[in-house]
Each structure stands twice: as structure tokens, then as C-alpha cells.
Design a protein that fits this description.
The complex is a heterodimer of chains A (about 350) and B (about 675).
Chain A lengths: L2 H13 L4 H12 L4 H10 L3 H42 L14 H15 L3 E2 L5 E3 H4 L19 E3 L3 E3 L4 H10 L4 E10 L11 E11 L4 H16 L5 E5 L5 E10 L16 E3 L2 E5 L1 H6 L8 E8 L1 H8 L24
Helix pairs in contact in A: 1-4, 2-4, 3-4, 5-8
Chain B lengths: L6 E6 H7 L7 H10 L4 E9 L2 E10 L9 H12 L20 E3 L5 E10 L8 H9 L7 H13 L3 E5 L7 E4 L6 E3 L5 E3 L6 E3 L4 E4 L3 E2 L12 E8 L1 H11 L4 H6 L8 H16 L2 E2 L4 E3 L10 E3 L3 H6 L5 H10 L3 E3 L5 E4 L10 H12 L21 H15 L3 E2 L5 E2 L1 H7 L7 E2 L10 E2 L4 H13 L5 E13 L2 E14 L6 H14 L6 E4 L9 E11 L2 E9 L7 E8 H4 L19 E10 L4 H9 L7 E11 L8 E10 L4 H14 L3 E3 L4
Parallel strand pairs in B: 4-7, 19-23
Antiparallel strand pairs in B: 1-3, 2-3, 5-13, 5-14, 5-15, 6-13, 7-10, 8-9, 10-11, 11-12, 16-18, 17-18, 20-22, 21-22, 23-24, 24-28, 25-26, 26-27, 27-28, 29-31, 29-32, 30-31
Classes of the chains: A alpha+beta (about 350), B alpha+beta (about 675).
Chain lengths: ~350, ~675
């Protein structure tokens, strides 16, 4: 092939080439080890010096031009292939997002609390909601004629002995009897009270009970546990105080209060102007409670605590009517961009 | 914790200063003291009393502190804290008389102590202004001088009393239960029906008072009263409480006497009231003091107390000296010459009976705020006793959430009709005896009612994409046995064109498999096995090992916007299902995978899962990667009618090719109907 026609012939042939295989053949034909350019180089070696001086630079330029147009074609073909792949793949990509559900605020809160106690080695227990007077009251040091009892507050399934549990402490009575210490237990659950439902009270609400029975445990341990819980729920800045309070199933009893989140302790309607909000009850398990469960109070001691969950949840989720939590009025917004295309 | 209804006692700042002459604490400090030691401040109000600006504290009194339901009890608490003596109101000596009031105690077992005295020739005037203000600041209406003095004494001492107009009493006064009378008219002209357990005070003709609760109209004192009998009694607190509840009468008197009030203080209360009456109303004592006190000689038990108990419980150092000082300030008699100490509490501390009660006294006066709260306790490691059911629920919930379900909680109290519509078991419904709402009296037997209520509420709000679940207890009765089961309920609400029961089941099945629960079957439901709300042709029973563990159905057309698909599964039953929690899915890869086919000829419609299981049992777990059905061909050559050839591709792992082949060829000899398949 004449050196002057090589480039044009290559360009023409490349212009009509669309397949990678054909292109690779052409490249081999022109710049392969025995290709046209190589052949011209070999011929150059046998020419006289004068002709070498004329043809040499032309051949150098040809080699550069051939390599350039081949590289350009290579790039073109590569881009086309990628584009085609992308086009074919884009057909299978769906941009819609799957719906993600939501926890109920009560169980969400319970889960957060559970997480802390699971980390601290507690077991999670539950118990019957239809309970006997024995486990709901008597085993908790509240005999039949105890002044702390108010029969009017109880919903009965079969008065006077079968009732809907008024407190999750009933689970504690059962676990103490059924399992041998040592034990560390939490028992979240639903409880019932014979009370008209309104925006701030409901006859069904939720409590979070916990107790520990070990050879030696102290009020200091109880306070430390409570503080860890409050910090988990409200952050490290939360301020908690502990005061003496009476609950029949514990001795000594403890009332934990949190500094009012609304007024920061200066007094407002939320905290009834005292600067603190009661957050539950606690104390060292009464020796009688242990004895009634068959646990020797000389060898074992324990602490117990109970918290109402509903008000925490209402504050956290800005829910103003407690009935929302059980009445089917709780609404879950879809996650942002859910089901969009 | 048992939440008790709070009871409150009010006290004036001026009273505290009057009875604790050395008191210098400010109202703020006093409020803080009471709150931290167990008598939480309910309110603190500036008031005008006796021509001075005063502070009125309202304190929440502990249910077991009968001694603190009065001014002097609260004074004693504060005096112990500030370590200052108190000055109680003095009483004048009661002159001796030869006659006793005409009193008979018929039912002695209910009377712990009764003191009474007669005074003649009193003059009932208007109460002085300070007295009127005093009782009214404490929430009691001013009536007349005698009644106001009676209430004033009760507020000071905590002992309720009653004054009878003796000119209206016929014959003797009798304390008895089982009154012969059917009713009586109380103060305030309310008629009360008496029953056989009510403790009454009667004369020869009529019931005159409900002992421990309220006086009657017949012998009440008024401006014309001249001759009176004052009684101060302490009764069986359980009887007082039962009477109060059964008669629906709750008074200042009953609230005090239903607690364990110390009978020893009765005499002082009587003497104080007598002194006040003589001073304000004049009159002459006309009888000896009647004093019935069967327990007078009973010794107060000595409590052995280890002086280290308080610090053992509190977890912080509390010295024996500190303990001793606190107990002495609280008027405990302490013999500390030997360990354990021997301690006798003052008689009015009826709440103290064991060493832990004493330790609480020490700790609350040391101060709960002295116990550090910023250390997370390093408690002993103990065995985890969390039941399997709880673990399963904990695992299920996030799976449901990630699959697009929103969780709801609904009320377990529903209407009896809702139970009839949604229940699919044969157990009886439970009706509670005193439901708060007359409509919702039944404990739910199914979660479906709550799920459907949510649908209705959502549709009302214009929300029609509904995919919800609830995990909760359902209740039923069989004979005298009450049953509770934990259920999982799922609901999909779809427009009429969308979804079928099969699609919904695949969804539910996938969720269960996520939780490791396999080997669940569906069988069509028969009449009597379906909830009433279920569509008859779209209701299946969810089975495991021939036991029903749930139900899945499409509801009948209840909403114009679409239909609901509901699945309800008994979690108690679900935990009996083998949960595939072993680690067979993970293996170390050491050899290249080899795959071979096997044909198995079996009757048409053979269960392919069972065929795969048949193969699986013949192969070592560590060498098997997968078994998949690749072809199903109905043989139609006439020789083998109703037979089908099933082709499975078996992939072996961690075996050299020739070993895998040998293992595979062995299958042709052990599985009936097996023959070599084509190699891939």
C-alpha cells in the first residue's frame, strides 16, 4: 500500500466499523506486529539514505496519525458499549422506596428502657393481667384490710379475688415465688384502674417494674440504677432527687423526682409549683415480701422500682390526650419520600 | 409499685413556731424537710390567720403514719429534725366523780379504747374568730362552738371524738354491731342503710352515731345544748374501713380511724377537749372518766436492732452515734449497751415493727441526699430467665417494622358483640363485673377488633394505606379457668382490586421465616372455625403439627374503601414450633462447588418440599449447598399414568469433584424412583 493512501484507507474503514471485533482486526492489520505500518518501517531500512531522509519523517507522521485515529475509534466504541449497558440496566432500576413501619410510642419507650437493663444483665418477664388478690396485693404486704387499699379503684373479673392487675408489682410477686435468687428482672406491662378516661387519665395504662434480689444490695445501688435510667431517657443533664416515700411492699421506700423539664425547678403549672415531678416509686424490698415468696430475708435483700410509662411517652411525643395511646387515634406519618418514584 | 390515693394534712407555720419554741427554720426549709423525709409538700400558701400573715402547708401523709394525720404529729417530726423540744397544749386535771357515764360496750372486740365523760351546764355560743378561721383553713366548716372545739381537738391530736346532747339520749349508750335498726339519719340529714357489720352507737331507742365515721341527727349538739357526753374512741381499723367503703361514707373521722391509731393517745385527746370546753363553754364535769382499754397492759415489743443495719441498707457510712442520736430525737427508747440494740418505739409509732423500719427512720433523717446517685452499680451477674416467648416477641417486632407494619396498641376491653364477631376459638368470653364504661365490658378474645377500630379511625381521617400489627394479650374462660394468650395480629387494608389472600399469606409466611419459623401449613377453615367477620371462602387455619396456631382471612365487606386481610397467630403456640436457630447456613468454603441433577419419578402432585427433604436426609450437612427443583414433567407414555418426573439440582460444596459424584450416584440407589439426571 502506498504510504500516502494508508491513513485515508484506515479512516474510511474505521468509519464503517461498529463492532469491537472488527475494530480489533483492523487495529491488528495496521499497527500489529506484522501490520501495514510495521511493513513500511521494514521497507524503509532497505532504502538509500536520501530517500530515507524524505520518507522517514512522513512514515513517523503516518504512524502517529494511524495510532491517533485508532485510539479515537477505540474511545468511541468503549463509550457506546458503556452507554448501552447503562441503558439496559436503567430499565431494571426502580426508584421507589419500601415502606418502613413504626413502633408504638409505648413499646418504643419500653424498648429503650429494656435496652439499658439488658446491658446491665436483667431478664425481661411478664405475668397474667387477670390476677388474684393474693399476688396483686397480699404478697406485696397489702393485706385485705390495709388502709392503702381502695376497692373502688380495682376492676374485678370475679370479686373479691379475681381482678385485673392494678400494678406490675404482681409480676414481681410471681417471679419471686417461681424463681430462686439471685435475680435481676424488669417487667413492663399493662395495668388497669377503675377510673373514668379523660385527656390525662385512662383506666388502662402501662408500668415499668424492675427488681433485684442479691445477697447484698443497697439504696445507693438503687439510686445509681435509677440515675442511669433517667440519663438514658432524658440525657446527661437530667437532675433527679430521691426522697423518703411509703409503699407497702418496700422498706425503706423511695420517691424519685425529676427536676421539672418545663420550668427547670422554678415552679410552674406542670409541676404544681414545686419544681419537681414525681417519676415513680421504689425502695428496698420489704422482708415480709421476700418471706412470703419463700426467700430468706436474712440471706437475701433486694430493691424494686416501678414507673408509669404513659406520661413519659406523652411528654416525649407531644401527645396531649392519653386516650390517643390506646384508642386507635395514634397516627404514623410515612417516612419522607416513601413510595415516591 | 402500688399507687395509693394520697391523703393530706394541713399545718400552719404559726402552729409549728408555737409548739416548737426554738424553731428558726424558714417556710422553704420546712417544706424541704417534710418533702425529703416522707411527707411530701403538696402546696404552700400564704394565708391570713388571726390577723397575721401566715403560711399554710399541705402535706401528703404516708398511709402508715396515723400519728402524722394531726398538727402535733407533724410538730414532733420537725422537732426531731431541728433537735428542739416541743411544747404541747396543757390540760387541766379532771376532777374525780363518783358516777360513771351510762355506757355499755356490747361488741368489745371492735373497740380498742373508749374514753368518755359527761359535762353539764355548758353554754354553746358562737365560736371565736380565731377558731372559725382555724377549722376553715383546715378544710372543715365552722358549725358552733362545741363542734368547732371538737374538730379543733381532732386536728391537733389526730383523735376523732364525738359530743352527744345528753338531753336527747334515751337510757344508756351502747356500742354494738348488728344493730336492730335498719337505718339512721346522719348529720347532714342523710339516711344510711345499716347492715350487720356496722359499728353503731345507740341509745335505748335509736342509733345515734356510726362509730368511727359520723354522728347522727337525733343527739346532735346545737345552740340549746346544755348537758353533753364527750367520747373519744379508737376502733378496729379494718372494721372502720369496711364500714366506710360499704356505706360510702368517708369523713375526717373515718380517714383517721381506718389507720392504725395508737389507743394510748386517746386520754390526752379527751382531756384536751374537756379543758377547752370548760374554758370556752363553761360547765361542770358530772362524771368520772369512762375508760375502756383492754390492751392497756400489753407490752410494746422490743425490737432487736443491729446498729450497722442502716449503713448496710443505705450503702454509705452511718455511725452508731448518729443512729442513736436520731432515734432518741424521735423518742425511741434505745438500750445500746449490747449488740443488737433493744429498741422500743414510742406508742404512737404504730408503723414501726421490724428492724428495717428503724433503719428507715435513721436513713431518712440522715438524708437520702447523702447517698450518691451518680455511680452505676456493679451488681452480680445472674442467670437470664427471660422466657422464650419474650425473646420471640422482641425478635418479631423489628421484622414487622422493617416490613412496613405500624404497631398499634388497643384496649383489651371491648364490647361483647365485638368478641362474638372476631373470636375464632370456642372458649367463653370474660365479662368484668365493674367496667368503667358500660359498653366495653368484655375482655377481648381476639386482636381483630382493635385492628379494625384502627382502620375505621384511619379511614375517617382520610388515610387509606393501612398496614398494622398488634402484639397483645387475649382472654377467655373455660369453665372456671381464666386463660390468657399472647397473640400477634396483622392487618392489611387494600382497595378492592389489590391483593388476594394468597399474596397476604406469602407476606405473613415470609415474616415468620425471617424469625426462623418454618414448617407452618394452611388448611381451609370449616364452619365454626371462622370468625363471623371472615369471608367464608377466604379463611384459612394456620397449622403446625396438626395444631391450630392461628387464622388468616379476608374480612367481609365492612368498608366501602376496600377490604382488610387479617392474620392472627397465638405466640404461645408459636414458641412450640422449632425455630431454626442453628448455624447450618454458614460454612467454611474449601472446595469448588459441583452440581448434579437427579430425577425422581413420583405420583403427580407429590409434595416437592418432602422430596427435597428426602434427598437432604441422605446427604452430609457440611457437603450440601442447595437443593432446587429445576423441572417437573408429567409422564404421558401410557405405561406410567399419573406419574411425574421431578428434576432436582443438587449442589455439593467442600468435596472434590469425584467424591461429590460418588456421593450423588449413591442417591440413585437409596431414593425410590430416582434416576440419573442430565449433567448441567
Amino acid at each position: 500500500m502506498d504510504i500516502d493512501t494508508v491513513l485515508n484507507s484506515l479512516i474510511q474503514r474505521l468509519n464503517t466499523t461498529n463492532s469491537v471485533d472488527e475494530f480489533l482486526k483492523l487495529r491488528k492489520e495496521y499497527i500489529g506486529p506484522n501490520g501495514i505500518v510495521k511493513q513500511h518501517e521494514q521497507q524503509l531500512a532497505s532504502l538509500p539514505v536520501e530517500q530515507k531522509r524524505i520518507i522517514g519523517p512522513k512514515l513517523q507522521q503516518l504512524k502517529k496519525d494511524v495510532e491517533r485515529v485508532i485510539e479515537e475509534k477505540n474511545g468511541e466504541l468503549h463509550s457506546n458499549t458503556l452507554l448501552k449497558r447503562q441503558e439496559s440496566e436503567s430499565e431494571s432500576i426502580n426508584f421507589s422506596q419500601a415502606k418502613i413501619g413504626h413502633y408504638h410510642p409505648i413499646t418504643n419507650t419500653i424498648s429503650m428502657m429494656n435496652q439499658l437493663f439488658i446491658e446491665m444483665g436483667y431478664s425481661i418477664m411478664n405475668g397474667p393481667e387477670i390476677e388474684t388478690d393474693t399476688y396483686c396485693f397480699q404478697r406485696l404486704n397489702v393485706p385485705v384490710d390495709h388502709p392503702a387499699r381502695d376497692m373502688q379503684d380495682t376492676i374485678y373479673v370475679q370479686a373479691p379475688n379475681i381482678l385485673l392487675r392494678t400494678q406490675t408489682s404482681s409480676i414481681e410477686s410471681r417471679v419471686l415465688e417461681e424463681f430462686k435468687p439471685p435475680m435481676k428482672v424488669i417487667c413492663p406491662g399493662r395495668v388497669y384502674r377503675n377510673e373514668k378516661a379523660n385527656r390525662s387519665n385512662h383506666f388502662i395504662f402501662h408500668q415499668y417494674q424492675g427488681f433485684v434480689v442479691l445477697p447484698h444490695v443497697t439504696l445507693k445501688d438503687l439510686f445509681g440504677t435509677f440515675n442511669a435510667l433517667f440519663k438514658r431517657m432524658y440525657g446527661d443533664d437530667v437532675e433527679v432527687r430521691y426522697r423518703n416515700k411509703y409503699y407497702p411492699e418496700v422498706e425503706p421506700g423511695v420517691g424519685p423526682d425529676m427536676k421539672c423539664f418545663n420550668c427547670k425547678g422554678t415552679g410552674c403549672a406542670v409541676c404544681k409549683n414545686v419544681g419537681w415531678i414525681e417519676m415513680g416509686g421504689a425502695g428496698m424490698i420489704h422482708p415480709h415480701v421476700l418471706s412470703m415468696a419463700g426467700i430468706d430475708p436474712q440471706k437475701w435483700m433486694g430493691f424494686a422500682f416501678g414507673l408509669g410509662i404513659d406520661r413519659w411517652v406523652m411528654a416525649k411525643y407531644n401527645i396531649t390526650d392519653i386516650r390517643t395511646l390506646l384508642g386507635g387515634n395514634v397516627g404514623y406519618k410515612p417516612n419522607l419520600y416513601e413510595n415516591t418514584i | 409499685m402500688l399507687v395509693t390515693n394520697p391523703i393530706y394534712m394541713k399545718i400552719l407555720y404559726s402552729d409549728l413556731k408555737k409548739y416548737i419554741p426554738g424553731l428558726h427554720a424558714t417556710p422553704e426549709q420546712i417544706a424541704e424537710f417534710y418533702t425529703m423525709t416522707g411527707l411530701m409538700l403538696d402546696s404552700r400558701t400564704d394565708v391570713s390567720y388571726n390577723n397575721h400573715v401566715d403560711t399554710l402547708f399541705s402535706l401528703e401523709v404516708r398511709q402508715n403514719r396515723a400519728d402524722c394525720f394531726c398538727v402535733l404529729g407533724l410538730v414532733r417530726e420537725l422537732a426531731a429534725s431541728v433537735n428542739s423540744p416541743i411544747q404541747i397544749p396543757s390540760v387541766s386535771e379532771i376532777t374525780k366523780s363518783e358516777t360513771f357515764p351510762n355506757i355499755t360496750i356490747v361488741d368489745e372486740r371492735f373497740v380498742r379504747r373508749l374514753t368518755a365523760i359527761q359535762i353539764n351546764n355548758v353554754t354553746v355560743k358562737q365560736s371565736p374568730q380565731w377558731l372559725k378561721e382555724y377549722v376553715e383553713l383546715h378544710g372543715i366548716n365552722s358549725i358552733n362552738l362545741l363542734v368547732d372545739l371538737s374538730n379543733y381537738t381532732m386536728l391537733l391530736t389526730g383523735y376523732p371524738n364525738h359530743i352527744f346532747d345528753m338531753d336527747k339520749v334515751q337510757g344508756s349508750l351502747q356500742w354494738r354491731v348488728s344493730s336492730q335498726h335498719k337505718s339512721m339519719i346522719t348529720l347532714g340529714s342523710n339516711e344510711v342503710q345499716l347492715h350487720s357489720e356496722v359499728l353503731t352507737i345507740e341509745d335505748d331507742n335509736s342509733p345515734l352515731a356510726l362509730a368511727g365515721a359520723i354522728g347522727g341527727d337525733i343527739a346532735r349538739v346545737d345552740e340549746n345544748t346544755h348537758n353533753i357526753l364527750i367520747e373519744v374512741g379508737v376502733y378496729d381499723p379494718a372494721l372502720v374501713m369496711r364500714n366506710s367503703r360499704s356505706l360510702s361514707i368517708s369523713t375526717e373521722t373515718s380517714r383517721r380511724l381506718e389507720k392504725n391509731l395508737d389507743p394510748h393517745g386517746t386520754r390526752y385527746a379527751l382531756e384536751l377537749l374537756v379543758s377547752l370546753v370548760l374554758q370556752e363553754c363553761g360547765g361542770i364535769i358530772s362524771s368520772e372518766v369512762f375508760d375502756f382499754f383492754p390492751g392497756e397492759k400489753d407490752a410494746i415489743p422490743e425490737i432487736p436492732y443491729d446498729p450497722h443495719l442502716a449503713e448496710h441498707i443505705a450503702g454509705v457510712p452511718i455511725s452508731s452515734d448518729d443512729s442513736l442520736g436520731i432515734l432518741q430525737r424521735l423518742n425511741f427508747t434505745v438500750d445500746s449497751t449490747a449488740i443488737p440494740w433493744k429498741i422500743v418505739p414510742p406508742t404512737y409509732r404504730t408503723d414501726i415493727s421490724i428492724a428495717e423500719d428503724i433503719a428507715e427512720e435513721v436513713i431518712r433523717f440522715v438524708g437520702y441526699n447523702k447517698i450518691p446517685s451518680d455511680e452505676i452499680p456493679a451488681l452480680d451477674v445472674v442467670t437470664n430467665i427471660t422466657p422464650e416467648e419474650e425473646i420471640l416477641v422482641t425478635n418479631l417486632r423489628p421484622i414487622l417494622i422493617s416490613d412496613g407494619y405500624d404497631e398499634i396498641l388497643s384496649s383489651p376491653l371491648i364490647t361483647p358483640a365485638q368478641n362474638v364477631e372476631t373470636n375464632y376459638a370456642k372458649d367463653e368470653s370474660i365479662i368484668v363485673e365493674n367496667a368503667v364504661n358500660e359498653e366495653f365490658t368484655a375482655l377481648r378474645q381476639s386482636l381483630a377488633a382493635g385492628l379494625m377500630n384502627q382502620v375505621t379511625n384511619y379511614l375517617k381521617q382520610g388515610i387509606s394505606t393501612i398496614q398494622i400489627f398488634e402484639i397483645g394479650t387475649v382472654f377467655s374462660k373455660k369453665g372456671t379457668m381464666f386463660n390468657e394468650k399472647l397473640h400477634l395480629g396483622l392487618l392489611h387494608f387494600v382497595s378492592p382490586q389489590e391483593q388476594q389472600i394468597g399474596t397476604f399469606w406469602l407476606h405473613v409466611d415470609r415474616l415468620l421465616k425471617h424469625a426462623g419459623i418454618t414448617s407452618i401449613d394452611l388448611v381451609p377453615s370449616e364452619s365454626g372455625q371462622r370468625p363471623q367477620i371472615a369471608n367464608e371462602s377466604s379463611c384459612w387455619l394456620i397449622m403446625h403439627n396438626e395444631e391450630q396456631i392461628g387464622v388468616i382471612y379476608k374480612t367481609k365487606p365492612l368498608w366501602k374503601e376496600g377490604s382488610a386481610y387479617i392474620a392472627e397467630i397465638n405466640i404461645h403456640e408459636l414458641i412450640k414450633v422449632d425455630i431454626d436457630q442453628n448455624n447450618r447456613a454458614t460454612t467454611e468454603l474449601t472446595q469448588r462447588m459441583s452440581s448434579y441433577d437427579i430425577n425422581i419419578v413420583r405420583p403427580e402432585n407429590s409434595n416437592t418440599f418432602e422430596l427435597a427433604a428426602e434427598i437432604e436426609t441422605q446427604l452430609p450437612v457440611n457437603s450440601l449447598w442447595s437443593i432446587s427443583l429445576t423441572d417437573r414433567y408429567k409422564l404421558a407414555d401410557g405405561k406410567q399414568p399419573n406419574l411425574t418426573r421431578y428434576t432436582f439440582r443438587i449442589s455439593y460444596i467442600n468435596l472434590a469433584e469425584q467424591d461429590a459424584k460418588l456421593l450423588h450416584e449413591k442417591l440413585y440407589t437409596v431414593i425410590p424412583g430416582a434416576e440419573q439426571g442430565e449433567l448441567p
